[in-house]
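Objective 1b. Sequence-to-structure analysis of Serine hydroxymethyltransferase.
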Amino acid sequence: MTARRHPALSATDPELASFVAAEETLQAETLRLIPSENYVSAAVLEASGTVLQNKYSEGYPGRRYYEGQQNIDRVEALAVERAKGLFGVDHANVQPYSGSPANLAVYLAFAEPGDTVMGMALPMGGHLTHGWGVSATGSWFRGVQYGVRADSGRIDYDAVRELALAERPKIIFCGGTALPRTIDFGAFASIAKEAGSILVADVAHIAGLIAGGAHPSPAGHVDVISTTTHKTLRGPRGAMLMCREEHAKAIDKAVFPGLQGGPHNQTTAGIAVALHEAAQPAFVTYAHAVVANAKALAAALLERGFDLVSGGTDNHLILVDLTSRGVPGKVAAKALDRAGIVVNYNTVPFDPRKPFDPSGIRLGTPSLTSRGLSVEHMPVVADWISRAVAAAGSADERTLTAIRGEVSSLLSTFPAPGLPLS
């Protein structure tokens, strides 16, 4: 089977081919609930594995440092135009290798080492690159952080404004990695304007929801939009920076030559395909289905007595606090994995436990929605999670094994996009 799916790889390196085949099987048979993961289409997979891999292309279309770029320029220009059209922005750069380098380019474009920058604290749902201490962004810049209210789990915009006016940061980041509620970009824009700050929306998690009209867009409110191209956007592992025309030169210069050499052209091609797919009516349906599934799953978990940060979700993501269950997040995540349900353990706001052994787990619905699961399946998923967490607390491996069989059985009727399995 391995040789038939990947003949050249199997002939050259059968050991590595066996690992790839095993991962294909794992992705086919398990319920992937990590909110930053998804399935790309067969077209995106094909584009990402083309001979564009062979080209080195420092510079930008029409301004390269290598010859032979006639076709590469077309590919990148196509991706740029599709990004601009889909997100309604003046300028787009599709070259960043991933989300963290994209955010680093923002710092390079607008700040000097030692400047004050502001973002959501990592334990509250923010991202490492928003000025958190263990990141280079927290070492090279003076990071100040805002959080969420203890009583609601939601951003307190009055507190954000008070901090911004007190600190006058050069850059303010809004967005994060564990935010289950809608981001008010307009409120952040008012705060940034009053504080004299550059406002950056990191929409890596919700870019697909924005493209599909299932979350408000930051376009027109912020100076820069940073995003990865996978997650809810269903593209390859890459990133984009989008901005107002006045910032285009600074952003492009920061990406190249500021931080990177030649772009990964095969990834640019995959991004172009994903943007084309996201512009289709079917993607609008998909984006709204992701949110509907998340809301239904959250409601089903609440019915089963789970504590959810902020009490639910507005997007694709659910943050579960397992404190009342007496099961640490890491223990629960590993048990769920054995049950064929893939999540990640995660800190919750004001978590008394350490980040590597936190109180919560983080769930998301992008992948299961890509497979075609709908609202009617969410009570079943919630029941699996409830049974698995209980089994984790009592070391009941028999129940975990039974759940894994049930998961595999259901998913066999919902094949995953892009997987070369019959």
